[in-house]
Amino acid sequence: MDVHLRELRYFVAVAEDLNVTRAAQRLFVSQPALSKQLRVLERQLGFPLFERVRSGVVLTRQGRALLPFARELLGRWNEGVEAARAAAPSGTLVVGMQTAVGRGLQQEALRRFREAMPGWEISLRLVAWTDPSGGLADGTSDVAFVWLPAAPGLETRVLSVERRFVALPDSHPLAAGAEIPFAELRDEPFIALPAEAGPLRDFWLGRDARDDDPAVAVTASTADETFEAITSGLGIALLAEGNASLYKRPGVVYRPVGGLAPAELAVAWRAGDHRPHVRAFLDALP
Length: 286
Hints:
This protein starts with a helix and ends with a helix. The chain has a five-stranded mixed beta sheet with strand order 4-3-5-13-6. It is flat, with a radius of gyration of 21 Å. Helices cover 36% and strands 24% of the residues. The protein has helices at 5-17, 20-27, 31-45, 61-86, 106-116, 199-204, 223-231, 241-246, 276-284, and strands spanning 50-53, 56-59, 92-97, 121-126, 143-147, 154-162, 164-169, 180-181, 189-192, 215-219, 237-240, 252-258, 263-270. The relative contact order is 0.15. One of its GO terms (cellular component) is protein-DNA complex. This is LysR family transcriptional regulator.
């Protein structure tokens, strides 16, 4: 039986809140995605973990029996990760990211970090959009470059504020415009982040500027999947102005979008994390 740590975290969160909607908000995932993962876990286990009641859910007898072991397993895993990192002779800083950073930020920060922490290695880790924390939530990253809104439990510092652009095929009727009002994109099919991305998915669908549901044609977990869908004519996607120059692709054009609030790129770390190598990296950034 292959049960993932993410599923155990979901189970523990719902068991603590006894409400799927509140737990989903705390986990920074959508309620349907959380419910789906709980059903998958119950099928793997072969018994129900929760019963629905008017106020939310309650644990079944099996769920109450499993809960302390799930908490212990998650706690032991986090302790193991920290112990493994502490065993390194000098250390490795793991930097999570979901898209290319560029903007003159990453290279200079890494140079300053090496000067401040000689002997330390740096591991750049590409994290799928299913984890909006950039690997911070499960402890696999020490710091991360993320787009706001950030997942709960993180501290952030904004590094760049940029206009939102749209990426669309060069054959698209709107591609000839110098700037495209968002109202003209409302009925277009969008390429969306996975449901697990929660509010970040909504932001890149422009839901802050619309009161209806966007038409989602494709769900993409990586930048490569997004641009493959665009060049195939399956839909369009919003992105930050800086990423428009980082992700140039044949057959794809980028135009600024009017009527949208800007995007914010930030560095993130776990709240209360004062380890020297984390602070050194944060100090290395502008």
